[in-house]
């Protein structure tokens, strides 16, 4: 049975602080819906932490097809972005951006020290986050004449479907939503009804 739920953040996390040899690492986690969300968040953090040295981050988007990016922002290769991304994976969350802002404290940490500090900082940010489980939903458009309204409404009620929108003009058009795993049953229920057109919205 394919999984039709995923975990993401309900809202942005509180800022966490991790200190290592005078360097300060501020960790933050944000829910995002597309890569376009990343830049404004980073710009805002750069204003807030304008005297920091590095703003390293990683994000992951998607449920079936995963898209991710990790950015070391001037730290040694793979010493920041990938350790942050590793925490996103171990928490099993998606549609999420984790940023770690570093203030350099004058003492070099070495690559091992950096990997560990960025990892712990990302972990703290995710632990401070409100992680929620969401369902993967499929939306369908139903088109039918008024004479079929009762039939349609009966199925919607029986199958406990959410109505996203309805348009009642010459004909009726209702957009419904159902969990991915229930989609085949819903499709079948409406396809069996005469004079009702059901189409998946992709």
From TrEMBL:
Gene3D superfamilies: Impact, N-terminal domain
Chain segments annotated as transmembrane: none
Every Impact N-terminal domain range: 21-126
Gene Ontology CC annotations of this record: cytoplasm
Biological process, per Gene Ontology: regulation of translational initiation
Assigned protein family: Belongs to the IMPACT family.
PANTHER family: IMPACT FAMILY MEMBER YIGZ, IMPACT-RELATED
Protein name: YigZ family protein
Organism lineage string: Bacteria, Pseudomonadati, Bacteroidota, Flavobacteriia, Flavobacteriales
């Amino acid at each position: 049975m394919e999984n039709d739920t995923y975990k993401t953040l309900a809202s942005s996390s509180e800022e966490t602080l991790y200190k290592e040899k005078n360097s300060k690492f501020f960790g933050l986690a944000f829910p995002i819906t597309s890569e376009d969300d990343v830049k404004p968040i980073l710009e805002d953090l750069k204003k807030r932490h304008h005297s920091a040295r590095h703003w390293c981050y990683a994000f992951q988007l998607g449920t079936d097809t995963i898209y991710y990016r990790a950015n070391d922002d001037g730290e040694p290769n793979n010493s920041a972005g990938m350790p942050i991304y590793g925490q996103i994976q171990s928490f099993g969350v998606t549609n999420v951006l984790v940023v770690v802002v570093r203030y350099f404290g004058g003492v070099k940490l070495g690559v091992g020290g950096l990997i560990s500090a960025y990892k712990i900082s990302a972990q703290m940010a995710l632990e401070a986050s409100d992680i929620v489980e969401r369902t993967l939903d499929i939306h369908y458009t139903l088109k039918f004449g008024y004479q079929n309204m009762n039939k349609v409404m009966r199925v919607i009620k029986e199958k406990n479907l959410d109505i996203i929108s309805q348009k009642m003009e010459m004909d009726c058009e209702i957009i419904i939503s159902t969990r991915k795993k229930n989609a085949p049953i819903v499709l079948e229920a409406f396809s069996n009804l005469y004079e009702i057109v059901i189409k998946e919205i992709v």
